[in-house]
UniProtKB/TrEMBL annotation:
Species of the source: Nonomuraea cavernae
Presence of keyword Signal: yes
PROSITE patterns the UniProt entry points to: PROKAR_LIPOPROTEIN (PS51257)
Keywords annotated in UniProt: Signal
Name the UniProt record assigns to this protein: DUF3558 domain-containing protein
Position of the signal peptide: 1-20
């Protein structure tokens, strides 16, 4: 089954079959002003990404340069935020150029989509939720949250976007 996932992903991304309906991440109520100045600009050298939403009550923590779930060693740049015993991590994984390679980066992950882009979801020890998508060739975006922030995962992911003017 694992070998079939990259084939299905390639066919889906190349337009074979009917387009899949995307779940809406937007909320019907107004959203607070973006927190762009709080988040770091993240880049793999091909245009920076920025974080436009951070949950309240978190303060900037340490950066990170490794994601232990990855099956191969890749360059990682990330930042973390902590508060109330919870942690949010957002980063970029550099060097993943194809959907096939991306689909095999994390064992025991579920292949899904993020705004039409290939994505992976998985849980690690302590019920930490991990989510990563291939933003563009060479750049994958990684978001993880501890259980107390699980409801914020999709909203944080939806708030990671190319920095304006780049």
């Amino acid at each position: 089954m694992r070998r079939l996932a990259p084939v299905v992903l390639v066919l889906a991304l190349s337009g074979c079959g009917a387009p899949a309906a995307e779940p809406s991440l937007a909320r019907s109520s107004p959203v607070p002003a973006p927190a762009a100045e709080e988040g770091p600009a993240l880049t793999c050298g091909s245009g920076p990404l920025t974080i436009t939403y951070l949950p309240e009550g978190l303060t900037r923590g340490r950066g990170f340069a490794q994601i232990s779930s990855l099956t191969e060693r890749l360059k990682v740049r990330g930042a973390s935020w902590r508060g109330g015993g919870e942690e949010l991590r957002v980063g970029v994984v550099c060097g993943v150029r194809s959907a096939e390679r991306f689909a095999s980066l994390v064992t025991r992950s579920a292949l899904t989509a993020h705004l039409g882009k290939p994505a992976l979801r998985w849980h690690t020890r302590g019920d930490v939720r991990n989510y990563m998508w291939l933003e563009r060739p060479g750049t994958a975006v990684y978001v993880s949250v501890t259980p107390g922030l699980a409801r914020e995962l999709d909203r944080v992911a939806a708030g990671v976007a190319p920095k304006e003017g780049s």
